[in-house]
Design a protein that fits this description.
The structure is a homodimer. By secondary structure, the first copy, chain A, is α+β, with helices and mostly antiparallel strands. The first copy, chain A, is about 50% helix and about 20% strand. Chain A has 13 helices and ten strands. In chain A, the strands form three sheets. A five-stranded antiparallel sheet of chain A has the order 7-3-10-9-8, sandwiched between helices. In chain A, strands 4-5-6 form a three-stranded antiparallel sheet, with helices on one face. In chain A, a hairpin with a 2-residue loop joins strand 4 and strand 5. The interface between A and B is medium-sized, with 29 and 29 residues. Chain A binds a DNA duplex through helix 3.
Amino acid sequence: MEEVLSERKEKILYAIIQNYLETGEPVGSRTISKYSDLNLSSATIRNEMADLEELGYIVQPHTSAGRIPSDKGYRFYVDRLITEKDQQITDMKEFLEQRTEKMEKVLKKVVKVLATNTEYATVISAPSVVRNRVKFVQLSAVDERQILSVVVMDGNIVRNKMIQVDKPLDNETMLKLNMLLNTNLNGLTVNEINLGLISKMREQAGIHEDIIASVLNTVADTIDPNEELEVYTSGATNVFKYPELASSESAKELISAFEEKEVLADFLNDVQEEEETKGTGIQVYIGGESKMSTMKDCSVVTATYELGDGVKGTIGIIGPKRMDYKKVVENLKNLKSELGKVIDQSEDSNR
Amino acid sequence: MEEVLSERKEKILYAIIQNYLETGEPVGSRTISKYSDLNLSSATIRNEMADLEELGYIVQPHTSAGRIPSDKGYRFYVDRLITEKDQQITDMKEFLEQRTEKMEKVLKKVVKVLATNTEYATVISAPSVVRNRVKFVQLSAVDERQILSVVVMDGNIVRNKMIQVDKPLDNETMLKLNMLLNTNLNGLTVNEINLGLISKMREQAGIHEDIIASVLNTVADTIDPNEELEVYTSGATNVFKYPELASSESAKELISAFEEKEVLADFLNDVQEEEETKGTGIQVYIGGESKMSTMKDCSVVTATYELGDGVKGTIGIIGPKRMDYKKVVENLKNLKSELGKVIDQSEDSNR
DNA sequence: GTTAGCACTCATTCATTTGGAGTGCTAATA
DNA sequence: TATTAGCACTCCAAATGAATGAGTGCTAAC
């Protein structure tokens, strides 16, 4: 697996891939011979290409067609690309930390910008709040039979739940319950709310333990993976721009993945977990490298963003294998400043 | 415009449409001659068909092809279909009124059921709350600089907004503001909150009038059309099942409409308004009849549902012109009982 | 008024042809 | 020994054209 290419082979391979990225057509020896700066005849190129094919970097769709990069070829290209750039985009922190009231809005705008910029399908997952801390809890009696529970997490993520009760609670009890909840839950991550704490709270709540249970459920809902498929998408229809995706049977699968979103959410989750062990900021999945069967004809570039305190989300850009990796990576890099603009705008429009 | 068709012409037209709905292919005179119960030769049918074409009910895609229904032809068919059935599906009230905590969930399930049932693209708008009443307002201090405002509307629609303040408010002021808000806003629809009331409240709030303004903004946001594009979709990829849609250029437009949703939201809004003047429960828009240019190759069947107190939403089912109108209409009729099931399930899964 | 029959029109399908792009190989060249 | 020119060969894609058949419009007969 660890073969070393001669410099000339590398250059040729690079040229082939570059060219294929632009045109989407198989590229022949003559093209390279003219296009590249290493003055070689087509025949020589052909010889080298035969070698590269044997090594598995390029393939021929059919006899007497030009060559196109194999997954291995793309991998070569991408690895070289990524190492050129620095690795992390973890510092949007200062933008979003506490200031924005509606993270949702910002995320929606971000995907849209990315999608129009890159002309690829784009998806972003809202920060997962597994490690997120409870900041504020409150119960309020909406009417005699219904109590509204509001939970605010770090990053101002707000969740509500209506709790039905059989008979009204008096003011004092409400106050007591609120106190109980806040003192016990405040500052905890959802992971830290364990059974011991729960039973302790239930005990203290006395006859109102069912309400406590409901509130805890609300908190749990906040990280419930079903609840948590907060995934925003944009530009799914961009796939139509790339014939090799549009025509393939999988186009509709792709689109439908973008509609249903569960697959995407799962994928982004996986990426994020993987990311935590590897930690290289930007990942590229070429063809089958991502485990999504839907994506076997695509490449996915992912980036993890962080808003401090382990509040992390993931961005994915999905395009054909011949996607413009350079542009995509740069776009993700620029995201930070883009985000700055977006937020300025949204504040303007809030006035 | 008000021509009357002979009974025989009607029968033939009906047969043509019926047949075309099934096959999607242009239908010729011979087919009708054999298929229908009115024993006529193909030649006779041909004569009648020539007449029907002249009258604009059917068209020939090209010389020497069979005939397909024109928009006018579909209209004939649909009108006849709808008048057969009774007209309203306004009574889901008893299901959703106050009981469900997460309307969102139910709606998502409803679209999904409809989409898989009918095999058409489906869209549903969350109840518009223009006429909805404020039930409960509360401000809470989350920390020194931030106040969370929660507004609950009829139907338990909850909205939150973070309000930034320059310096902390003491408990007493909070209490006063809460009182002020609740007594003034409770039971009002958003339309009823007029300038007079606003300035009156601002006055009473004294130095904290900016906070009142923010809360009122939250209430206003609740009906802000931008905010209000609460539209759920499902089955967009069903369009691929119908060649006449999938192949047409507009397929991508359709899909992208389903992704961006704004167009759909606008459309559903229009429908709802129109519905309020006409009030016939089920509407069918054939081709250009809906003002959405994206939909000129489709038909849309819409139905308005009501949860009592003017809390209304709209369902739209989008398919090819040759969609199975009968099935769709019946499906919408059955929605009520479907909804019943859905809600039972969701209550089960809540335990 | 209805029907049979026939000539005519197109879309579609299939096989065939053609052009061209690109390869692999071989022999000549530096 | 590495490079290049040249040529035969392959195969795809687009163009061409013939065959098919569904369907019509018209006319003449019933």
